[in-house]
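Researcher: Sit down with what I've pasted below and flag anything odd:
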Amino acid sequence: LQQFSDTGSRKEHVKITSESKPGFLERLSETSGGMLMGLVTFLLSFYLLFTNEGRALRTAKSLDEGLSLVIPLDSIHSVSQQNEGRLVHLAGTLSTSKPLFDPSYGLSIQAVKLKRNVEMYQWVEYEDSTEYEENGEIKKETKYSYNTEWKSEVVNSRNFDREIGHKNPSAMAVESFTAVSPNVQVGSFVLSKGLVDKIDDFKQLSLSNLEDPHADVTRGGDYFYHSENPRRPEVGDLRVSFFYAGLSGDDPHLGSADKVTVIARQRGDELVPYHTKSGDVLQILYPGDLSVEEVFQKEHESNTMKTWALRAAGWLSMFVGISLMTRIFHTLVDWFPVVRDLVNIGLKAFAFCVASSLSLLTISIGWLFYRPLWALLIGLLSVVPIVVAKSRVPPKKQQ
């Protein structure tokens, strides 16, 4: 059953759908599907936690190995054969052989990357749903509202609840793209593709010094508009902005070329990935002029952040998995509100304690081959959530 009620504005409407309340067997069937999904999530969490510890320790060992082997170069303007195949550290300004162009808009810049970002003025649909029970039925009231916004991706209006009056074009007349310089150097050294990929600190390019490229394009601020009236755009109008990364030549408006610090393997006049004994790859690039110690400190910090983020993701996957697998107990007592709420709290506490214990145990197993003492300590720590949980349970009364 569907009911429509307009709110007076064509940009907003409400739809109410209703369905009969699912029976016990139907809810039990849904819970069974959730249990299967929970089991898959639960098993995946073990894989994520275990492999993450090995990755973190391997990366840390590779960084320590790199720090012990790296050679700071005396000069970036000459290639020394003595350093062939070795891990080297250098810092200097970026340089590219020729500017990057966008002939469609009469724009050029001496940089490693030039990105054209195209946005289209489009309708966007927003949903706000609420569920409630009425006359033994579950009703869902959904409020749909529509707004016009600049978007980088085409919004498919065919998926809207009501497309009439909110239709978007199916494609953009102008495409976004990123141009990358084919040859990027620091002094006499050519950077590998992997190092060039790390130059991604994009800044918006000011268009104040440029003319309007052609009659149907108007410049407004830092945008080129394909619109009859940029102040009052219509659906389907375009605006184009530009971004650059790695300024590789002195520019009167943007300043001097960007400086970078690189640690990589020297191969002839190229800087390429260095393969460590631990099985990792080192090819590091940071903006600015950094010492060897500063670079490796940043890499260790980045590794630590990634490790903790994946640990948190692993624990959360385990918690969600256990919650889904134990959901059946909640369904069995669903008819009794007080009991249901108590069981729900108990199941959440159970999932929290078990997920915490098993996560710590998995992490300790991951450390077993690398640092056995730490593995033992973390293994002992995994018992703490269970002990705490048991201590919260009141003892049975004496007979």
Summary: The two ends are 59 Å apart (CA to CA). The longest strand covers residues 111-134. Residues 1-9 have pLDDT under 50 and may be disordered. Residues 15-58+306-383 form one domain.
